[in-house]
Amino acid sequence: HRFCKHLPKIELHAHLNGSIRESTLVELARERSVSLPAKLLQHEAEHHDADRDALFFNTKPRSLEECFEIFSYIPKCVDDVAALKRITREVLEDFANDNVVYLELRTGPKVLLMDHCAPEMGSCSKKQYLQTILSIMSLFENQEKDRHNHDMSSSTEKLVRLPMTPRLIVSVDRSGTVEQAQENINLAIQMVALYPDHVVGVELGGNPTRNDFRRFEPLFQKARDHGLLISIHCGEVPSATDEFDTSDTTLKKAYEEASAVLQFRPDRLGHALLLPNDLMNKLMQQPIPIECCPTSNVMTLELALHHGGNLIGGLKMHPQLQKWIERKYPFSINTDDSGIFCTNLTKEYLLVAKVFGLHENDLADIAIRAVDHIFDKPKRDALIDLMANRIEKLKN
Ligand code: 5GP
C-alpha cells in the first residue's frame, strides 16, 4: 500500500462530477433539499462504518444503469458556480494528495441556472462553466509549484509531495443532440485560444446505450483539425463478435459503431472492454492507448455479482486486462468516477497488483508508460524525469 500510495501516478480518465466527494454531494443535496436515492445514502453509511479493508474489497455492485441514475442527481446538487468551484478545488486536492503528478480531468460544460448566491457565484453559461474550472486549474498549478519549492527548501522529509499538473478535456455527452455536441466542441476550440496550456482535448462519453459515435464523428474531426487530441469511450456494451456474427440488430450496431471508432483512430480509447475479437486483434497490431478503469469496469459489467461484491474476484473476470498486462499493451490505470465508485488511484493500482500478482517494478512501469499517452505532449520528458527520480528514491 505504501508503494502504491507514494508512487507518482498519472490520471487520464476522471469525470469531474463523478469524482465529487461523497460527503460533499450529501452536504450539497441537504442544502438544496434534493433527496438522493437510498442506494447512494446506504453507500455513505457503509463507507463510514465498515472497516477499511472490507470496504475496499467488498464495495457494493453498481450497475451501468444505476451509475447513470446517480449521475442524473449530481447536476441538481452542483447547480451554481459556488458548488462548481468547490467540487473542482476538492477534486484537484484529492488527486494531488494521492500523489497524482499529472491529471487530465474531463467534464461536459453545463448551464447553471441557480441564482441563490452572491453575484459571480450563482448562474453561468457553458462558457463560464469552463472558464471557472480553468481559472481554478491554473491557480492550483501555480500554488502547487510554490508549495513544492517551499517544501523542498524547508522540509527534511525524503518524499516531499511532488507538484500536480492539471489539464482539461471537454466532454461531449452522446445522449445529447448533435447541436449540443457542436456547441461543446466549438467551446473547446475557443478555450484553447484562451487557455492554451490547459485545454488539451475532447472526449465522447455518456450513456453508451444512447446514440452512436458516427453521429458525432464530423465534429470530432473538426476538433482534430484544430489540434485537439481525442478520447472516445467504447466497448462498454456487448456487441457482435465479428461482422458475420448474429442477426441481433443491437449487437450488430454495436459492432459497426466500434469499427467506426477504431477506423477514426482516436488518440486514446476509454474502457475498450467488450470490443469484438477481430477488432481487439487489429488493435493488438496497431495499438491505440486504452484508459482502463478497473473498479468501474467491475461495477458496470457487474463482474463482482458472483463474488459477493468482491472487487478482487470481479477483476479476475475482466475480459481484457490480463492480456493487456501480459502483452504490454499500452494501457493506463484510472479511476473514472472516484466519488461514485468510492475509489482513488492508489486503490486502483493496489487492486490490479493483488489480482494480477504485480510487483513494484511492474507498477512503476505501468505508471511511467502512461506518460506516453498524455495529451500535453511537451510535458512528457519532464514528467518522466520527475517520476523516475521519485521511484528511485521510493525503492531505496
Ligand atoms: P461531468 O461531465 O458531468 O463532469 O461528469 C459526469 C458524466 O460523465 C456523467 O453524467 C456521464 O455522462 C459521464 N460518465 C461518467 N462515467 C462514465 C462511464 O463510465 N462511461 C460513460 N460512457 N460515461 C461516463
UniProtKB/TrEMBL annotation:
State the superkingdom: Eukaryota
Question: Which pathway is recorded for this entry?
Answer: Purine metabolism; purine nucleoside salvage
Question: Pfam families under this entry?
Answer: A_deaminase
Query: What InterPro entries is this protein classified in?
Result: A_deaminase_dom, Ado/ade_deaminase, Metal_Hydrolase
Q: Which of UniProt's keywords are assigned here?
A: Hydrolase, Metal-binding, Nucleotide metabolism, Purine salvage, Zinc
- All residue ranges annotated as the Adenosine deaminase domain in the record: 8-387
- Which reaction does this chain catalyze? N(6)-methyl-AMP + H2O + H(+) = IMP + methylamine
**A single BP term in Gene Ontology:** purine ribonucleoside salvage
Q: Which GO terms describe its molecular function?
A: hydrolase activity; metal ion binding
Co-factor requirement? Zn(2+)
Which residue ranges does UniProt annotate as crossing the membrane?
none
What family, per the record?
A: Belongs to the metallo-dependent hydrolases superfamily. Adenosine and AMP deaminases family.
Protein name, UniProt field: Adenosine deaminase domain-containing protein
Provide the species name. Cyclotella atomus
